[in-house]
Amino acid sequence: MRRRQFSALAVLTVLALPTTAACQGGVDGSASDGNTAGATTVKVAHVPSTLFAPLYLAEAKGYFEEQGLRVQLQKVQAGQDAVPLAGTGKVDAVVAGFSAGLFNGMEQGLKVDVVASMGASTGTQPSPTALEVARSALDSGGVKRVADLKGKRIAVAGGAGAAGGYQLAATLRGEGLTLKDVTVVNVPMADMGGALADGGVDAALAPAPFTTAMEERGVASPLAVPPRGTSATGVVFGTAFAHRPAAEKFLTALRKGAADLQGPGATSEENLTVLARATGQKLDVLRRTPPYQWDPQLTVDNQQLTAQRAAYQDAGLLKGGAGAQG
Predict the structure, then answer these.
(1) Which residue among 29, 50, 125, 133 is the one 20 to 30 A from 229 at the CA level?
(2) Nearest C-alpha neighbor of 163 from the set 216, 119, 132
(3) 3-state secondary structure of 150
(4) Residue 64's Cα: distance from chain center in Å?
(5) Is 20 helix (H, G, I), strand (E, B) or coil?
(6) Paired residues of 183 in beta bridges
(7) From CA 98, how far away is CA 166, in angstroms rounded?
(8) Which segments of the chain does DSSP mark as H helices, in order?
(9) With contact defined as beta carbons under 8 Å apart, do 250 and 67 qualify?
């Protein structure tokens, strides 16, 4: 198949994937349960998160197996570190957040393709992701609205160039601020509550259940949430894998998982039990956690990708260069 040209300067486009017979597999590692004799093996790097619920439901409910696939899920600490593994063929796919590194990598010829979306913000409170502000700042009256965060220190896991950096940028944009107007501090999610409590940061862009923990401790309260549809996560294929028949089969199974999350499925006990096992979160915590939303077809949101790239560009996080091959 002729390789298409991709430019991170414009819009990241989805490949038209083939739908013919399966390719060869056969790599080591843990795989889906069930009868997978003769199945094609697909190695998938992921950061355990309810954002990626379609992946875990597809694995647990046998949707990959139905497609003749044996999926090996490999946990990684940060999706931005795993994307190059897809480009070099060490894994077939990465399901994680998009970062400035993805855009820079594509500019420089990294052989990866963005092929699907994952969880997006609902835009309503309570929200699975929120901009939490230290109670001390709220009680003193120093911060009453998002605009008051100008010049303040805000915690984001992975820093400004991570997926959370774009979510913060989208939240700030509603009041005319950009990432340049605040000081973004790289703080692991588990440490954000402590940083807010001791004054190390004034606010934090955090996902549940960390938001719930901060609020229950009384160290922070939600001030704003990312706008509806804000998304900085999805599925990245190595280009070599994207041109194989197994790629479309993989996406078919993912979409079936996404279909199970529509309406009441997002909070059904069956699905939450799967997510608790996959992410290591407690079931009772997930019951109290607001769900994300998923497009049933997991269509790539090119508008969000363009906005994400613009936010990183404005913050000076992207390198110049010509369009990269995908």
Answers:
(1) 133
(2) 119
(3) coil
(4) 21
(5) coil
(6) 153
(7) 9
(8) 53-60, 63-66, 79-87, 100-107, 135-139, 163-173, 192-197, 210-217, 239-242, 245-259, 269-279, 283-288, 302-314
(9) yes
Cis peptide bond upstream of 188, omega within 30:
no
Angle (CA) 299-127-270 rounded to 5° is: 70
Q: Which two tokens stand for residue 5?
A: 């040209």
Which one-letter DSSP state was computed for residue 120?
B
Backbone angles phi, psi at 184, to 5 degrees: -85, 125
What is the spatial distance between Cα 293 and Cα 258, in angstroms, rounded to a whole number? 9
Residues of the chain with pLDDT under 50: 1-34, 321-326
**How far apart, in whole angstroms, are the C-alpha atoms of residue 275 and residue 265?**
12
- Encoded tokens for 253: 């199974």
Residue 233: C-alpha distances to residues 115, 274, 296, 308 (Å): 11, 20, 15, 11
pLDDT of residue 21: 32
CA 133 to chain CA centroid, Å, is 23
**pLDDT at res. 319:** 84
Whole-prediction pTM: 0.84
- In the numeric block, which tokens belong to residue 160? 């400004």
Taking a C-beta distance cutoff of 8 angstroms, is the pair 170, 108 a contact?
Answer: no
Contact 247, 64 (CB under 8 A): no
Using alpha carbons only, how large is the chain's radius of gyration in Å? 20
Pairing of strands 203-207, 129-134: antiparallel
Cα 195 to Cα 190: distance, rounded to the nearest angstrom: 10
Calpha distance 70→92 (Å, rounded): 12
CB 147 within 8 A of CB 175: yes
Is residue 259 within 8 A of residue 165, CB to CB? The reply is: no
Q: How many CB atoms lie within 10 A of CB 172?
A: 25
Looking at residue 320, its pLDDT comes to 66
d(CA 302, CA 30): 33
Euclidean distance between CA atoms 31 and 34, whole angstroms: 9
Pairing of strands 183-186, 220-224: unpaired
What DSSP element (H or E) covers 6?
Answer: strand 5-6
